[in-house]
Every structure is written in C-alpha cells, then in structure tokens.
Amino acid sequence: MTVHEPDRDAAAYVTGTMTLDERERFEAHLLTCETCWREVRLDREGRALAGSAREAAPAELRESVRAAVLAATPDRAVSSTTRLRRRRDRLRGLAAVAAVFALLGAGIVAHGASAPSTIDAAMTAYAQSQIEAHHEPMPAPDLGALGMARTGTTHIQLGAMNVEAFAYRTDAGARMTLFVADEPFPMPPGATPTLDGWDMSHDDMHLMTGGGSKQFLAISSDMALLTSLQHGLDLGMVQLA
Amino acid sequence: MDPHEDPAERALATLDADAVHRAMWTLPEAQRIAIALVDLADMSVLDAASVMGSPKGTVLSRLHRGRRALATMLTEQRREQTS
C-alpha cells in the first residue's frame, strides 16, 4: 500500500484480503485519514446490505451459483494463461454470471406464489433488463420489421427450463424480452389459454406464449409490442428459428 | 434508539432484500458483477478477478464503488420513507 487508493483499500480491508502486515499498516493509517475512514464505513454498510439480499437466497442456490461460475472458468488459477484463453474464459464466465443472475433474481424477488417458478424467473429477467449482450447461442429472431432492435442476447435457466433470451427495444424506448425454448412454457394459474399457448397480465407486465417447433414467451409492459409480434409471426414476417 | 447501534444494522432493519436487489440492478454492470460474485456467491476476490478478467485491485475498486453506491442509495431511500 505505497499508493493511497481509498476505494481499493477500503474493500480489501472490509473483505479481509489484506495480509496481517498490510492490515496493521492500514489500521494505523485509518486513524489519521478521514477519507479512508469514511470509505471503510460505507464499504461495510454496502457489504452488509448486499449480504441481506444474499440471506434471502437459499444456501444451495448460492452454492450452485458459485459452482456454475467456477466451472465456466477452469483455468482461473493458471498464471501462464495466454491472453486469448483468458478472454475466452472471461466470456464464458460472464455468460455464467448472466445465467446466475436469473437464478439469484428468481430467488430474491418474491412474486406472488401463484405463478410457476419458470414464469417468475422470466418476469424477473424482464423487469430487471437482465438480458445483456454476452454471446450468440442461436440466431436471434430479427424483429427489425416490427420496429424493434435487439439490445441483448443470453442463454439462461428459468426455473427448470433452459432457454435463449433476447431483449429488444423500440426507438421510443419500449422494451420486450423474448424467451425461446424447445418445450412449451408452463401456464401459470390466472393465465388465459390461446390457440397455441397462453396470455397473462401480471404487475404491469403482459405475457404471451405460443409457437410451433420453437416455443416462445414474450414479456413487455407495452401490449402493442406483443400484438405486433403476434401479427409478425402470423404473417410470416418474423421467424423464431 | 441506541446511539451505539451499527449504522449498517440499522439500515438492514428497515430495508427488505427486495429493495437491495432492485438497487443492485441500478449499478454499472462491472460493479454489480463484482458484488454478485464476492458478496452474493461468496467467491474470493482472486476468483472473482479471474472470472472478470481484471486485476485484483480493479475488482476491489469496483466492489467498493458498488457497495458505497448501495449504502448511499438505500440510506437515501430510507430517509425518504421516514420523512
């Protein structure tokens, strides 16, 4: 700690990654440095708050999260790793993190007990704009003809289902998330059956499912986007796969 | 109220995990990932650094800025709720 970096040092101190020697020197420094003292206090507070969110997630969920992330980065301890391999690992790691967030989100955000966990997780992913541009697992459906530009793609697990998730946005800023899977999305209580799936509205979100060999679940708070998607699919302007 | 009470604990008493989680989604992605890995998934800072492909010091800085933002945001929210 020859260089004074309050941000880094506060986190290292609170997280407990300092050596005994570093720790003693930093504690001596804390007595005279108002800035570091304040940053340590805020760091401790923020860590406790994040911890309270963690408490809401079951222990086995946290364990599966860590396992998923670590499995995605097998070479993490190898110091001689090439830059290329590290980049590849990093991308895999981030994809795992995206999936992991869907799990944590589903565990932490308590929706009513009425909808199956898959749909809860899907709504959570939509509500929190979780779908980020991490990788290209399958060709993304092109919704340009409907005025929707894709803003993110990922592969995530919703409850027991593995799905591809695509986020879209209109010029006006309305968002829609499209989940695509090989099996139908489970119908929650309160949903209305349709010809090829079901529709539902919940917490200002509209949900619509359907499809053939590829099943989809679309979520948006703007009903017009779902109607537009339905028309696009019916008219063959839009393909799911 | 006990003046010696830890401010972090006091904040926790009035905020539910849902509010924390929502606040977490407003953080820049790098900070959010650092917090998710270290504070939510209990990973070591070194493991988090390799997952994120960043030096340990960078991860610590992100971790701190994220935690500080959470503390500031939620203290603010709480003040609005009680005023």
Short summary:
The complex is a heterodimer of chains A (241) and B (83). Chain A is of the alpha+beta class.
Describe it.
The complex is a heterodimer of chains A (241) and B (83). Chain A has 241 residues and is of the alpha+beta class. Chain A has helices at 6-15, 20-30, 34-55, 59-71, 83-108, 117-127, 223-234, and strands spanning 148-158, 161-170, 175-181, 192-193, 198-202, 205-211, 215-220. A 7-stranded antiparallel β-sheet of chain A has the order 1-2-3-7-6-5-4, sandwiched between helices. Chain B has helices spanning 7-14, 17-24, 29-40, 45-52, 56-82. In chain B, α2 crosses α5 (56-82) and α3 (29-40) crosses α5. In chain B, 47% of the residues are buried. The model of chain B has no long low-confidence stretch (mean pLDDT 77). At the A-B interface, α1, α3, α4 and α5 of A face α1, α2, α3, α4 and α5 of B.
Number of strands of chain B: 0
Q: Determine the structural class of chain A based on helices, strands and strand pairing.
A: alpha+beta
What is the spatial order of strands in the main beta sheet of chain A? 1-2-3-7-6-5-4
Helix content of chain B: over 70%
**Largest interface (C-beta under 8 Å):** A-B, 56 and 49 residues
Quote the distance from N terminus to C terminus of chain B. Answer: 16 Å
Outline of chain B, from the CA principal axes? Answer: elongated
Strand proportion of chain A, as a percent range, falls in 15-25%
- Write the H/E string of chain B, N to C: HHHHH
Keywords:
heterodimer; A: about 240 residues; alpha+beta; B: mainly alpha; 5 helices; about 75% helix
Reconstruct the topology from this structure:
The complex is a heterodimer of chains A (241) and B (83).
Chain A: H1 6-15, H2 20-30, H3 34-55, H4 59-71, H5 83-108, H6 117-127, E1 148-158, E2 161-170, E3 175-181, E4 192-193, E5 198-202, E6 205-211, E7 215-220, H7 223-234
Antiparallel strand pairs in A: 1-2, 2-3, 3-7, 4-5, 5-6, 6-7
Helix pairs in contact in A: 1-3, 4-5, 5-6
Chain B: H1 7-14, H2 17-24, H3 29-40, H4 45-52, H5 56-82
Helix pairs in contact in B: 2-5, 3-4, 3-5, 4-5
